[in-house]
Specification:
There is one protein chain. α2 crosses α3. By secondary structure, the chain is of the alpha+beta class. It is built from three helices and four strands. The longest helix is centred in the middle third of the chain and has 22 residues. The radius of gyration is 19 Å and the shape is elongated. It starts with a strand and ends with a helix. 44% of the residues lie in helices and 20% in strands. A hairpin with a 4-residue loop joins β2 and β3. It has a four-stranded antiparallel β-sheet with strand order 1-2-3-4, covered by helices on one side.
């Protein structure tokens, strides 16, 4: 089951609120809180598209650069042993550590 919607490079995780009987989501990967909801999937898709369009239009109107979902730069720390294993796996596959890590993460993220 896929509970993610994507539009114009923006994504949102979809959830269901049983108490209110609605589907809802929020644009992921941006600091601005942009949410939407509806009572069926088709209406939710429309609401999501409208939320993205409204976010982009509002940014343009106020002269703010809309946040891109992600920059492509990742910085994280791992143990020296994990670093060693990753560097070795990359070298043995004939790739840089960045190329190797991107492929591994892409496969894992589907």
């Amino acid at each position: 089951m896929n509970n993610v919607m994507t539009f114009k490079g923006y994504s949102a995780r979809i959830e269901y609120d049983d108490e209110d009987g609605i589907l809802f989501g929020q644009i992921a990967g941006i600091r601005d809180g942009v949410g939407f909801h509806a009572d069926n999937v088709e209406a939710l898709r429309t609401a999501f598209h409208e939320a993205v369009d409204d976010y982009l239009e509002t940014c343009a109107r106020i002269g703010k650069e809309p946040q891109k979902p992600y920059s492509g730069k990742m910085m994280f720390r791992v143990s020296p042993e994990v670093h060693r294993k990753a560097a070795l796996a990359a070298e043995l596959s004939g790739k840089s550590l960045n190329q190797w890590a991107e492929e591994v993460i892409d496969r894992a993220a589907g």
